[in-house]
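Appendix B, example 12.
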Amino acid sequence: MDVRIDTNLAELPIWIDGKVLKQMKFATSVALYETAKEAQEAVREDLPKIFTIRTNWVAKGIRIKPGSSRGIRGSGDGLNGMSVEIGTVDPFMERQELGGEKKPFKAHSVAIPNRDPQTEIADRKKWPKALLKKVSGTFLYKRADGKKFILQREGRSRYPIKLRYSFASSVNVPARWNMRERVLNIASEKYYGNFERAFKKAMETAR
């Protein structure tokens, strides 16, 4: 995801003072970086409102590239080429943003956990194969229609039985993350104010 500011600043060197131009480049890179940081923080804060978050792994994966205003200054040709990207390193979050069909990667079906409570962490010890192999009372049940489930007896008796996983050939994942819209809104709200402050400071401290 790119946050880009298109301008006609390439024409400025024709008439603007060299010191001012230098500070404008500096202020532009700072404003881009500060805006990207604000967008990053907003997206991270939104995660628990949209998803059941069990660890900070996904939030840490939301990153800025380049990761500094100095890196932004070196990312393009002068004022026009500077840019910053905000995105996630986790490929599975793309489906949360765009929606789509989730298909099995190296299996015949997708395992759908039945979490109780919903905040339960499905770590590796609770994955299907681990449950069947190591957790007492769990077993694979196949219905006459071919649908499969992993069930677990909650005691030594036959009942009650708890559903741990169901299986499907694919799962439709609705688009429910609004990262792109959130970033664009932050960029339009914050960039110009960030630039004004950065440019004023740059001019006050210019040598």
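The chain has a mean pLDDT of 85. The chain has seven helices and nine strands.
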